[in-house]
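User: Second chain of the day. Same drill as before.
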Amino acid sequence: MPSESLTGVPVSPGRASGPVVRVAEPLGEPASTPAPADPDAEAARIDPAAQTVAARLEKLAETATGEAATILITTAAMAADPALVSSAQALVKTQNLPAPRAVYQAAGKFADALAAAGGYMAERARDVLDVRDRLVAELLGIAPPGVPPLASPSVLVARDLAPADTAGLDPEKVLALVTEEGGPTSHTAILARSLGIPAVVAIRGLLVLDAQALAVDGDTGIVEVADPDAAVVTAAKSGAIEWDGTGATADGHRVKVLGNVGSATDAQAAADAGAEGVGLFRTEFCYLDASAEPSVEEQRKAYTAVLSPFRGKPVVVRTLDAGADKPLAFLEPEDEPNPALGVRGLRVAFDRPEVLDRQLEAIAGAAQDSGAEVSVMAPMVATAAEAAWFAERARAAGITRAGVMIEIPAAALTAREILEAVDFVSVGTNDLAQYTFAADRQLGAVAKLNDPWQPGLLRLLKIIGQASKDTGKPAGVCGEAAADPRLALVLAGLGLTSLSMNAPAVRAVGASLAATTLAECEELAEAALAAADPIEARAVTAASSVAR
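Assistant: Same format as last time:
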């Protein structure tokens, strides 16, 4: 008999209780038989189905805003992707597969390539699988999987939620979200925060819990069986968040509040949200669909479109985070037994420095075109020598300010030496956590280890913060840890000088800092560092007079 109380990873604050509505499981594998009598006619069914699915998602996007609209538009584009459609059509014609099975296999290959990439790109694999299931359902003539119509306010229970499903939720009907899988950096987590819906993910044993009603605490991660006859309860939603747009504590200590972006749409959303600049501009979008390396001019134009909303403001551009584990054919990757620990990030540039040099040239040109105050940083840096090598090439390209990502424990432990070689560092807490705890950030079974409140991770961040103080050089955070308004206070107390996040979190984090002094942030940091686990870390900071 499962316990009446379970604990997962809290990803969106608030408390609610009410009746349970279970989300249907994803579609299973469609049959590979019978072979189509007319393969050409069967293949011809795929593109209209893709256009229908895309149109539905685009229609849903018209009623959404911010991050939700962006995700729906992106998912619609995936559904109509010519590469996916043509790959599935080829499987029908060459392997005599029914169209649903061909789509299933083709999309599976795309998702596997993204999952192998790790990091941000691996998180997009879930989007592809969602598109796959919608296309298969359309071809089979059945209802797509997803959230059923809600007759009354309910707690949604699911194995996992597709980003497009989360984006389409009505906060007035959804009291809370709870999932057995997923993690703190998933789109479900990001969207739940933006919609103001309490959410807990990675709850082992959730799906076998026999409950008609649940009480969900999005602050502690505790989910309990509730009385189905009790009245629906939800924490009062806060009103409009007041923030003057300057990232600083109540006593004036500056902590810049910046945006994470990966496209021109993201950049505009961050600017609209009031971000003071960009702490992480992911440049992979310029390469992923390219069969050959984009030219300097192509890159320059694409980067300029992203930089333009931030004329006169700081933007940190991360150079290509790719390698043998990424689907970039022009890099001619070799097979590796463990790509996550192989030639990726800056390590690619050691073998192919000309690719890095051309990208740096394009970034320098885009900085001139856009008027943004551009810095660059390299991903997957392990040593001070690597950091110095990158900084030299960046400056040779005409970019005066160069830094690196700290995503590897060795880099955190030698942060002082690295900061002596570069102008700044930025911590990718998502990857730093997964490498510190040897826990794949995409795997729900180990998601609790990737909780950004883990004291072990916070102690590494303290080393980085202290190195920043000692060298007088900035050290920011650009992982999802920065999007938690209370954890943001802890990060400031640890000595981090900027916080960068997805657009929906900007105002809440800015307001949280503005309401708290630096001394109070340091008090919260010490309390979190002394905790035995993430649950205690959250509890002691929540109980602090500072938090109240």
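The mean pLDDT is 89.

User: Great, on to the next one.
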